[in-house]
Structures are given as C-alpha cells and as structure tokens.
Amino acid sequence: MLNQLEELASKAFDELGKVTNLEELEAWRIRYLGKKSDLIQTLRSLATLSLKERRVVGARANEVKKALETSLAEKKKGLEQGLALSLQRESLDVTLPGESVLLGHLHLTTQTLDEICSIFGGMGFQVVEGPEVEWEYYNFEALNMPADHPARDMFATLWMDSDTKTGDRPMLLRTHTSPVQIRVMEKSRPPIRVIAPGRVYRYEATDATHEWMFYQVEGLAVDKNITLADLKGTLFEFTRCLFGEERKVRFRCDYFPFVEPGVEVAIDCLACGGTGCRLCGNSGWIEILGAGMVHPEVLRRVDIDPEVYSGFAFGMGVERIPMLRYGIDDIRLFYGNDLRFLKQF
Ligand code: DAH
C-alpha cells in the first residue's frame, strides 16, 4: 500500500508540472484530491487496516495529501498571476481617441481635368484618349508638319531610342494632344465632337513655368457648315464657365500648321482685371488656348473632303488654369509630391 501511495504521489507531481491553465488544474485537483480520488479512497479505507499499518500508511497518506494541496495552491497562485499579467498586458483603453485614417482626394490636375471634361460634356463633346508614345506621323506629319517644317521647333521633342522604331518609322513622346485629332478622324466620320485630355512631354529644362511633362486637353469638332463663329461661341462659353461670367475673352490671329486660320484665346487678367500687372506681363491679357479651323490639308489626309466638311480644333495646357486661379507660381509643385502643397486643394 505504501508503494502504491508513492507511485500515486510521483504521478500526481509529474502531471501537475504539465498543467498550463486553471481548467486543467481543476481537473487535476478532482483526479488527485477529489472525493473519488485514489488518495482520498485510501485515507477512507484506513479503518480496515490493523492499528500498526494504519499508523504508517495513514501518516504517509496525510503527508502526501498535504504536499499535493500545497503544490496545488502554489500552482494556482502562479497561474492566476500569469493570467492577471497577460490581462493587464492585453488591456484595452476604450476611452482612447481612435487613430484617424488619412483620407486622400483627387489631385488638383485631375480635379481641373474633370471640370473641363464636364463643361465640354455638357456641350455634347465625347471624351477620347490617345497613346503617349506616339508615331512621328501622328504628332507631326499628319498635322501638316512634314520632316523639315520649321514649326517642329515649337516642340522640343523626346524621341524614342532607335531600337523601338518599327522599320524607319520613328516614335516619340507626344509633344501635344493634337495627334489624337488624327486618330479620331481616321476611325470615325463627321459629325465629330471630341475632347482628348492627357499627358504630353517636352524636352525642356524645368523651371517655374516649364515642366517636361504636363497635361493638355485637345478639342475637335468636324461637321458640315462649321465656322469660326462656332469655335468662338464654344470657347467663349467654356472660358466663362471656367473663369466666371465677368471674364472678357479675346481672340487674335496666331499660327499653328494644322489650322487655318489659327487663333490664340486670352482672357482679361484675373489678378489686375486688365490694367496690367506681373501675372499678365503688363499686357492685361492671359493666353489660355490655341485654336483654329482644321486645315484642309489635315482633313484631306484622313479622307474627309474639305469641300464638304469643315471643323475647328483647340488645345490648352491644364496646369495653367489652377495656377491662374489660385495664384500658384511654380508648375513644378504639381508633380513634386509634396503633400503640404497637394492637401490645399
Ligand atoms: N497643339 C498646340 C500646342 O501644343 C495647341 C493647339 C493649337 C492645339 C491650335 C490645337 C489648335 O488644336 O487648333 O501648342
């Protein structure tokens, strides 16, 4: 019987060592110290033993019981402390203010593009897009600027490496959105009324008014009986929608190879109202657009008969518009990714 007791004790201590939580500990207690446990049963059966045996076994059984009870209490304390500690560590102060999630918004250029597209959308223009890597043909040739045409000098061009040429057809980063005009007229017949927003590239040193990449919006309308009056009416309406009813709009002759006649559109200076200041270079006017009647040569090239159809086209720089509106004095701020600037709009 004594041997049994010793075995029981060592098994009990062994298992207690493996207990890792309070539930397991309670199961252990029931197993080794519960009313039906071997140890308690042994203590109960002491009465059946002889006096001599009872004294030896009884004393040992009581020792074992005490030792198990002490160990149980210690283990319990240890587990409870561990629990309290981890509760404390994982505690959550629900009264702390939450972490605010940073909400972004559309880039100033995108906002301006959206506004331009929505004004022309209201006049029935459809939004189309063209590729930024373009054939020389669309960027120059088809726009009435053959190889040695001096007007090519207006566009400092970024050419693609020769290994991207297909045969002897050179490619470039489009210097304006005007090539989209050709792409549209190649694919569809009049009546045409489209605007083409997008990035354009120039091989230029950057400064406050020049970026090597910026945005333009191109416009094109082709149909029977389209006249300069339609061009004027459309752009007049557009500039006033964008810059306010009180703006004056000026149309003057200008030259672009792909239009005839060509015009330059200006509004009276937003800063001085026309009296002359630094913003308008003392002229009182600010140029915002190039435009004109589509050159017959351009129409002919895309198989639209200039004797039957006519059209107008226009192109504008996008960043210039918010620069004028908000008095932003450096175009490099647009794509410098400085949130202190971008967040303001
Ligand atoms: N593509 C010209 C530029 O980048 C702007 C322009 C002028 C576009 C006259 C036109 C136009 O469609 O008719 O300078």
What does the model show?
It is a single chain. The N and C termini lie far apart (89 Å). The protein has two domains: 2-89; 108-342, Bira Bifunctional Protein, Domain 2 (BirA Bifunctional Protein, domain 2, 2-Layer Sandwich). The model has no long low-confidence stretch (mean pLDDT 91). The protein is built from eleven helices and ten strands. It has 345 residues and is of the alpha+beta class. Helix content is 39%, strand content 19%. The structure holds 3,4-dihydroxyphenylalanine. 3,4-dihydroxyphenylalanine (DAH) binds next to strand 8, strand 9 and strand 10.
Short description:
This protein is an alpha+beta fold and 345 residues long. The chain is 39% helix and 19% strand.
List keywords for this structure.
345 residues; 11 helices; BirA Bifunctional Protein, domain 2; 3-stranded antiparallel beta sheet; 2 domains; binds 3,4-dihydroxyphenylalanine; alpha+beta; 19% strand
